[in-house]
Amino acid sequence: MQNIPLTSLAKNHTAFIVNINAGMGATRRLTSLGLTPGTKITKLSSAPFQGPIQLQVRNTRLVIGWGLAAKILVSEINN
Known about the structure:
The protein is built from 2 helices and 6 strands, in the order ββαβββαβ. The protein is an alpha+beta fold.
């Protein structure tokens, strides 16, 4: 499968995190939220106009900004 930014993942689709293309601070922040390579995530919703994105990660719901989400590369799981 092709790697895509999390922002391009369709609503209610599931993917594995492949890589985080961010600086040390952003990577540390995402890691502290449990967003690490190999983690399975589901995109639950996204606000219009590059607004926040709601995710399901390890039985927890998170909301992250569009800018951070754009730095996360994922590989979609066939639904």
